[in-house]
Each structure stands twice: as structure tokens, then as C-alpha cells.
Specification:
Structural class: mainly alpha
Order of helices and strands: HHHH
CATH topology: Ferritin
CATH architecture: Up-down Bundle
CATH class: Mainly Alpha
Helix content: over 70%
Bound molecules: fe (ii) ion
Length: 159
Amino acid sequence: MAKTKENSGTKKAVQELIDALNGDLAREYQAIIAYTVYSSVLTGAQWMNIAAELKKHAHEELQHALIIADQIDYLGGSPTATPKPVKLSKKAEEMLRFDLDNETETIKNYRQRVKQAEAIGHYALADQLRTIIAQEQEHQHDLATALGIDVPHVFEGGA
Ligand SMILES: [Fe+2]
Ligand SMILES: [Fe+2]
């Protein structure tokens, strides 16, 4: 009896992890699209460096999407084919701000996902997520630097 209960608890945790990873995958697709479009439309000498960075981000987001999709499949789920909506703007600062907000949201989500992966003993996934988080933090840093602002930290406890 106790064992059945435990199994159904794990099953529920795995399903929740699959669903949450599909949200992450939709966010990775969103990032691929946003970085592809924004890096092409950013004009003006002061944005040239960041436009080149955004193209690199697009490649890295695709790598993340491939990892997350494989993990969803491994866990027995079906990877989504739908991105989260991409906001558009004609203003460079606004585009970069959208990207920065998305990166911050992404980092918050992946931190939660590390905990969920460890809770079911899926340490390989937790390790992959940690590597992805480090790259998302670099993206955040690139964007904040281009905008001339501090990196918004998302550590637990507020600050
Ligand atoms: Fe990503
Ligand atoms: Fe990113």
C-alpha cells in the first residue's frame, strides 16, 4: 500500500516535471525566434556588438531546446511544438528589454526545475539544467550591459 502511494507520488512528480519542461521548451523556442528577429532588425552603430551577441544567443537557445526536448522524450512526454508569443517593437531598447525580462523569467524557472529534477533523483537532468542556467546568466549579462543597467538578480529571498 505504502509502495503504491509512493509510486503514484513519483509518477505525479514526473508528470509535473514534464509539463514544466514543456513550458521551458516553449520559452526556448520564443528565445530562438526573438534573437533571430531582433539581431536582424537592430540597426545603428551602437547596437552592432549586441546584434552579433544576439545571433550567438540564438544558437545557444537552440542547443537548450534540443536538450530539453530530448529530456521530455526521455521522461515519457511529448515535446511541444508551440513557442510562447514573441513581443515585437521598433525600438532597440524595448527589444533588448523584452529579451532581458525573458532571460530573467527563464532563469527563475530553471532554478525551480533543478529542484524538481533532484527531487525525483534525476541528477543528470539537474546537471544539464545548471549548465543551461550559466548560459542564460551570460545572456542576461550581455543584455543588461548593452542597456547600460545592472543585471537583475533573481536569487532566493528577493535581492
Ligand atoms: Fe535558453
Ligand atoms: Fe538565454
